[in-house]
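chain below, 207 aa
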Amino acid sequence: MKSHNIVAYAMDFSSFLVQRLSSKSLSSVKSIILFGSGARGEAQKKSDIDIFIEAENNPEELEQEVERHSERFYDSIKYKEYWKLLGLRHIFSCKIGNPNTWKSLYPAFVTDGIVLYGKYFSTNAQGQGRTLFFWENLPSGNVRVNLYRALSGYKARGKKYPGMLTEYQGQRIGKGGILVPLEHRQVFQSLFQSLRVPAREIPMIAL
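prediction:
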């Protein structure tokens, strides 16, 4: 299963929830995080997609709302006429609470977690959110090497040179995708154009 599809699918699910939660429940939500196999790009056809909803209070009331709206998501036109046709029929497994109450999962949040909604989105006058870039077929081996060196950095003569993902607070998504702050999208667009990489992009706007 392509990792960029999973991330976009999870983004759509989180947006669906946020738009329908009551004001009281939404005010308690600090962030929504994709973690586990879905975030690592390792989700299989029958894998559940793990979502953590960080909440300050009223977890029981929030749990009831999330469960109700999750069922409605699978009945939505977007799910039936878009995601389902793409083969994305994964069920979302939502865990709700404070990270301190889910200490066994905390390492997964830190190492693999992708923030779908919340305070960790970067904000400026251009908007709020991130951009998902993804690609499938690279023109040549040299292009692949140059792209990954530019994104992830490299070592030369004992010195380490950081990549653009470090410089611009981006992160890798599986083998063929990156998630970057929206305000830095043009920098990465220029990189892909200069290397003639046929990358596509999906803007991810925080609500």
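Residues 120-127 have pLDDT under 50 and may be disordered. Residues 3-20 form the longest helix (18 residues).
thats it, cya
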